[in-house]
Structures are given as C-alpha cells and as structure tokens.
Design goal:
Blueprint: H1 2-22, H2 27-34, H3 38-51, H4 53-57, H5 70-82, H6 96-107, H7 113-122, H8 139-153
Length: 162
C-alpha cells in the first residue's frame, strides 16, 4: 500500500535525523540534509531526547484519528464484496450514496461522499461503470454490418466539375 511506504519512509527520515543529532550535527544542518523544516527537526529532537528512538519510529503522521477502525473497514470490505442486493438494495450496483448509507446504517457514522470515495480507494476499490450493452448483442453481426452495409450507406463526395 502506498500509504504504508510513505509512513515507513517518514520513520526512516526521523531515525536518520536522530542519528545525525547523536553525531553532533546542528538541527538546521539536519533539516537541510533530510529535507524537513527546521522546526520539525527540533520537535524530533525533543521526542528523541525524552522518549528515545522507538518513539520517533512510532510517531503519528498527525491528523484526526480514524472513525472506522481496521476491524470495521474489514467488515465494510466484506459487505461490499457481497454486493448491495445482499444488504437490502434493489440493484446489484454500489454507488457512493449507497455505500455512505450502508456505513451510516451499519456503523452509525456519517461520512461525506468524498470521504466514502477515499475509503473505497483505501480498500482497493475503483470507479467502474457497467457497460450499457444489450445481452442479446451479436458482435459478429455488428462487425459484418460495419464492413458491408455501412460503407454503402455513407455519402459519397460529389464529383468535381473540371
């Protein structure tokens, strides 16, 4: 997952900064070396000095804590794979509105459709639209029509008077 790789890279950067601090480099130099704001390096130094290297590795990326935990996300993924008809919807097509409504019913959490979109992406789902083709479609007959009938129906360019 992309997010996990980014978090691991950030943790490695913090650990590298701590090693450079131990080697006696100034926070301003370290900021340039690891590509982080100087204030951030000072914050990392405070965490490193008070709680140690493991605390630096485990630092959160910040932000609001997730309202759906890993267990709920797993349950949501299973429900999505079961299909909407298994959960009381009339047609076998998940829409953002339906997923949002399902999350609200199942977990009691209200999300915007934009956030539902993000959650679906996090779970590995992508935007797909059903093909609008008739079940009775005959591809061979269509190709025959395109090659034989259609060229005879197209307008021909008018002959030029010389």
């Amino acid at each position: 997952m992309k997010t996990r790789n980014k978090l691991e890279a950030a943790a490695k950067r913090r650990v590298r900064a701590a090693r450079l601090l131990q080697a006696g480099h100034a926070p301003a130099q370290i900021a340039t070396m690891v590509g982080a704001p100087r204030q951030t390096v000072y914050r990392w130094r405070a965490v490193f000095e008070s709680q140690g290297l493991d605390a630096l590795r485990d630092m959160s990326k910040g932000g609001r804590p997730a309202r759906l935990g890993a267990e709920e996300l797993a349950r949501l993924q299973v429900a999505l794979l079961e299909g909407p008809t298994a959960h009381g919807f009339g047609t076998p097509l998940w829409t953002l509105k339906r997923v949002r409504l399902f999350i609200e019913r199942q977990f009691g959490i209200r999300y915007s459709e934009v956030h539902v979109w993000r959650l679906l992406g996090q779970l590995g789902f992508s935007n797909q639209k059903p093909e609008r083709r008739a079940l009775e479609r005959d591809d061979v007959a269509i190709e025959h029509w395109k090659k034989r009938t259609w060229p005879g129906l197209k307008k021909k360019p008018a002959a030029r008077a010389g």
